[in-house]
């Protein structure tokens, strides 16, 4: 049964199948040398990373068992490592082009948190998480990201006191150190404003209004990450429209 209430199972069937087929075609081109230019390889690899994450989110929206996502999460790590390797191989005069895939833009920020959320909630091992954190990098740039990385074992990481997106993420950061009951209230308040807070920032905002606009579902995986890592009671917001409760409770 679909978890998403805005699109049908058939919608997600169609686009998951389409994306997986296109991903395989693109990977085949990379493997066979069909993409000769170094930066062309980077853009192809970046698209594979995006699609790999989108397929997982669509699978969640479709109603797939969370326990079945582990292989997809392993693949996402492999896609990210491939992207880094191809960025490292760029000529010196093209190295600056990699910044768009690595900096904390709003879309990258969300992708990094969603990736971490999936890895944590699916119980990926310490070595896997270390590789994820190393690839995300950006140490000392964002308080929320740094605190989560430290919680996951990156104890030597520089920790910022500032948020890159304070308007959107101050409540979630506050929840980390608040008293137990207040933690739940802060996360719920964050969830209540989450979707609207993405307006004019997230590329996917309002894309449920079309049939071929890349809709994957509106799930606040970053809230799930904080709840799981910091042991926050989610009983007061478990049925929230944007909260992926089944991911947290692995059902």
TrEMBL record:
InterPro entries: PA2201-like_C, PoNi_C, PoNi_N. Coiled coil: none annotated. Residues 141-247 form the PoNi C-terminal domain. SUPFAM superfamilies: PA2201 C-terminal domain-like. This is PoNi C-terminal domain-containing protein. It comes from the Bacteria. Residues 3-133 form the PoNi N-terminal domain.
């Amino acid at each position: 049964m679909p978890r998403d209430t805005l699109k049908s199972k058939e919608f997600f069937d169609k686009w998951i199948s389409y994306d997986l087929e296109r991903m395989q075609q693109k990977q085949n081109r990379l493997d066979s040398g069909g993409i000769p230019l170094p930066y062309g390889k980077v853009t192809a690899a970046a698209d594979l990373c995006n699609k790999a994450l989108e397929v997982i989110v669509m699978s969640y929206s479709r109603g797939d068992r969370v326990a079945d996502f582990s292989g997809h999460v392993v693949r996402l790590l492999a896609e990210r490592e491939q992207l880094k390797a191809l960025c490292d191989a760029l000529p010196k005069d093209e190295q600056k082009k990699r910044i768009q895939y690595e900096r904390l833009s709003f879309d990258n920020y969300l992708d990094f948190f969603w990736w971490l959320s999936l890895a944590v909630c699916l119980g990926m091992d310490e070595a896997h998480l270390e590789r994820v954190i190393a690839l995300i990098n950006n140490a000392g740039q964002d308080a929320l990201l740094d605190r989560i990385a430290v919680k996951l074992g990156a104890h030597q990481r520089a920790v910022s006191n500032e948020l890159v997106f304070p308007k959107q993420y101050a409540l979630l950061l506050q929840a980390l150190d608040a008293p137990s009951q207040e933690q739940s209230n802060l996360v719920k308040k964050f969830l209540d404003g989450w979707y609207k807070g993405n307006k004019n920032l997230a590329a996917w905002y309002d894309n449920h209004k079309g049939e071929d606009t890349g809709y994957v579902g509106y799930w606040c995986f970053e809230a799930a990450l904080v709840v799981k890592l910091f042991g926050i009671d989610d009983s007061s917001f478990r049925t929230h429209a944007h909260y992926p409760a089944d991911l947290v409770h692995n059902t």
